[in-house]
Design brief:
The chain is an alpha+beta fold and 492 residues long. Among the domains are: 39 residues; 53 residues; 161 residues, 2-Layer Sandwich (Nucleotidyltransferase, domain 5); 67 residues, no CATH class. The chain is built from 16 helices and 14 strands. The strands form four sheets. The chain has a five-stranded mixed β-sheet with strand order 3-2-1-4-7. It has a four-stranded antiparallel β-sheet with strand order 8-11-12-13, with no helix packed on it. The protein starts with a helix and ends in a 39-residue tail after the last helix.
Length: 492
């Protein structure tokens, strides 16, 4: 750009010679520069307005502006291009996209929604939302001021599941916020009238029981609850994909609980503080939890506990503590688990994982301990059987072992053994029966042979045990009897 002094020299040279080229030769510049300076001086010192260049989309610019205004800036250039072709546009699609982008930008500048950063108050808002990856669904909740995050997984997004997890979130927080902010999820929404969401009757009862106010976002406006939208994406990336895949919701929740504890104990990048520490202050401003927990979902199917201390549900058996035998209980599925509850108090009596029809889910603690091994006791009836069984465990083991060995003459053998009991004392016969059981000798003649051998039979011992043998008694003589007499008659 020329300075004001140089421009005055150019104007003076032009007035002197009267031509652009002559003035340019005198001032050492080009004739085009001389022309611009002279024209600007003639117009009062302002630059002459450049004539706008014609573009190939000028004829359809009004059409594009009307469609953008009609669709509130949502229509795409691809959808508009056929209408523009019909209106006479002959340019390239790329040039048309530039026109649509410019018009949409101008429309948004005049119709901005006026967003502003959210300012949260302690104990005020809990934002909730659902997300999913495949068949697994994730429920997320964020306490807005402290940024404490709550994540749990479920197999569905039904109303009963949502309210159950929301109640679990309140238990985890130790209180109830004043407002629960959700999008227009169908499980909690009964309808929309004049842009006002009508909650379901079940959600209204739940909110009244806990003492919070349900709040809703605008339709198709995820930015109004971005605080929980970010958590949904975080949980998907870090848990569902980072630690998955999970077989079911129970295994996913086993990973979600320590994950929540970890992220709540780390410094949050937005508030630059630890959410768990901020929660200690915010908990004082939360509403108290109700003394009674509400019944969520259907009350369940009524069942009577049978004599096996079980209930039947879905053609399968599920155990219940045996003290409830004969009582009526309620059975329902919740969160992939089967809950057996007391219909009067709502107390959970038993919890099982669902099993296939025809199977049984049995917990040992419902029966006072593990299942004992099957035992078929010896029950003597005849006098001979009673005589041998009266000898105690040795007699019972001999009868059971002889029967298991296939001794078809056991009844006659017991008669012979009863006769031997009359000839020998009970202690000798019991010892003989114990030896017969140890060496698996199941006939009466074997016991008789053991009695005839008496105490002289060998008694083997396990390796490492001391071998104790009773040696026979023999006459002994003193050592003096073995002295040798000397020649002189004296002992030597």
């Amino acid at each position: 750009m020329k300075s004001s002094g140089e421009e005055m020299d150019i104007i003076a040279a032009y007035r002197l010679v009267g031509t652009y080229r002559g003035a340019a030769a005198m001032c050492g510049t080009t004739h085009k520069t001389v022309k611009r300076v002279v024209e600007r001086a003639a117009s009062g010192g302002t630059r002459p307005r450049r004539k706008p260049r014609e573009r190939n989309f000028d004829t359809v610019e009004g059409l594009v502006a009307g469609r953008v205004k009609e669709t509130k800036g949502r229509i795409s250039a691809k959808r508009l291009l056929p209408a523009a072709r019909a209106a006479g546009y002959e340019g390239s699609p790329r040039n048309f996209r530039r026109l649509v982008a410019r018009v949409k930008q101008e429309w948004r500048r005049d119709h901005h929604r006026g967003r502003r950063p959210a300012v949260w108050a302690p104990g005020e808002v809990l934002a909730i939302d659902w997300g999913s990856v495949g068949a697994l669904h994730v429920f997320c909740a964020v306490l807005a001021w402290s940024r404490v995050r709550f994540v749990r997984f479920a197999a569905d997004e039904k109303a009963a599941t949502t309210l159950r997890l929301l109640a679990e979130c309140f238990e985890e927080l130790g209180g109830v916020p004043r407002t629960v902010l959700a999008d227009r999820m169908g499980c909690l929404k009964g309808g929309v009238v004049a842009n006002k969401v009508v909650p379901t009757a079940e959600y209204v009862r739940f909110a009244a029981h806990y003492g919070f106010r349900p709040d809703w976002c605008e339709a198709a406006d995820p930015q109004s609850k971005g605080i929980v939208e970010n958590l949904v994406g975080y949980a998907k990336r870090d848990v569902m994909i980072g630690q998955g895949p999970f077989a079911d919701a129970a295994s996913a929740n086993a990973a979600a609980v320590p994950w929540c504890a970890e992220v709540n104990a780390a410094v949050h990048s937005e508030v630059m503080a630890v959410p768990a520490e901020r929660m200690e202050k915010e908990r004082e401003l939360l509403g108290p939890l109700p003394s009674l927990r509400p019944a969520i979902g259907s009350p369940g199917a009524a069942r009577k506990v049978d004599r096996l201390s079980c209930v039947r549900f879905g053609s399968a058996r599920y155990s219940v503590p045996n003290r409830f035998t004969g009582e009526r209980v309620a059975v329902a599925e919740s969160g992939g688990r089967l809950l057996v509850t007391d219909p009067a108090t709502g107390e959970v009596l038993a919890e099982h994982a669902p099993v296939a029809p025809g199977e049984a889910a049995v917990l040992d603690e419902h029966y006072g301990g593990p299942r004992p091994a099957p035992r078929r006791a010896v029950r003597p009836k005849t006098p001979d059987e009673k005589a041998i069984a009266a000898l105690g465990p040795a007699g019972e083991r001999f009868i059971a072992g002889s029967a298991a060995a296939g001794n078809t003459r056991l009844a006659g053998d017991l008669a012979e053994l009863a006769a031997l009991r009359a000839a020998h004392d009970d202690e000798a016969l019991t010892a003989a029966l114990e030896r017969a059981v140890a060496f698996r000798r199941w006939r009466a003649e074997d016991v008789r042979a053991i009695l005839a051998a008496g105490a002289g039979v060998p008694r083997p011992r396990p390796a490492g045990d001391a071998l104790v043998i009773e040696l026979p008694r023999v006459p002994v003589r003193p050592l003096s009897d073995y002295r040798v007499a000397g020649r002189d008659g004296g002992a030597s």
